[in-house]
Amino acid sequence: MTSAPAIALQLYTIREAVAEDAGAALARAAEIGFERIELFNIVEWRAQLEAGLAAHGLTAPTAHAVLSSGEPERFFEAAQALGVKTLIDPFIAPERWTSRDEVLRIADELAAHAEKAKAYDLAFGYHNHFWEVENVFDGETALEVLAGALPADVGLEVDAYWAAVGGADVPALLTSLGDRVRQLHIKDAPLVDGALSKDREDQLPAGQGAIAWQPVLAAAPAAELLVVEFDEYRGDIFDGIAQGLAGTRALLGA
């Protein structure tokens, strides 16, 4: 990478702690060493997040919002109020990625959201899971088809773990997607029966599994943010994010 990207924590990782006491959860994240949070559930938790970020010196460069859940303007308004710069849609149902024509319709929908986001001074992007790379059309993953149909100003946050467990050659995929990749999600997976485990419960901090991270990072030179995240974690979640932060810093040589 031409310059070291920043590191953030995806709030979904500590969602149970946030639901119990958002201020205390954000305080612990800050104590561990996180300075940036990628937000989640921004409409319902807006007031708590606004107070907690300010109290603990945290910023929120990005946020996730599933816009298919309706009324996207409410997400744009909340993101703007929370100081978010880029709003990212993290989920479009797997069954919609099984034909090229449907992927092109998804691209049109995301482009429309991106255009509306501009009125709120927000950039816009999409975040993958495994199905966007498992579905392949004429040698192109569905994610690549999507990228080719999106306006140039719509970014991609590539979850390298989900791309890897979905069977993609992640460095090759990132090279294909090019400068559109603005953020990377960083978590690891062990080998189970010779293949990367797709079990969410098996997720590990970066560097503790079988994903080769240096080629991944080298293939995403435009990425400005690395996001530590677990969908699930077998141990103490705050210990997990501390290890995730340390592992990600180690990958960057920091």
Task: Provide the fold topology.
Blueprint: E1 6-10, H1 15-20, H2 22-32, E2 37-38, H3 46-55, E3 62-64, H4 72-81, E4 86-89, H5 100-117, E5 123-127, H6 131-134, E6 136-137, E7 140-141, H7 142-149, E8 154-159, H8 160-165, H9 170-177, E9 181-186, E10 191-192, E11 195-196, H10 213-218, E12 225-228, H11 237-252
Parallel strand pairs: 1-2, 1-12, 3-4, 4-5, 5-8, 8-9, 9-12
Antiparallel strand pairs: 6-7, 10-11
Helix pairs in contact: 2-3, 5-7
Features of this protein?
single chain, 254 residues, alpha/beta, two-stranded antiparallel ribbon, globular
Structure report:
This protein has helices at 15-20, 22-32, 46-55, 72-81, 100-117, 131-134, 142-149, 160-165, 170-177, 213-218, 237-252; strands at 6-10, 37-38, 62-64, 86-89, 123-127, 136-137, 140-141, 154-159, 181-186, 191-192, 195-196, 225-228. The protein is globular. It has 254 residues and is of the alpha/beta class. It is built from eleven helices and twelve strands. 46% of the residues are buried. The two termini are 13 Å apart.
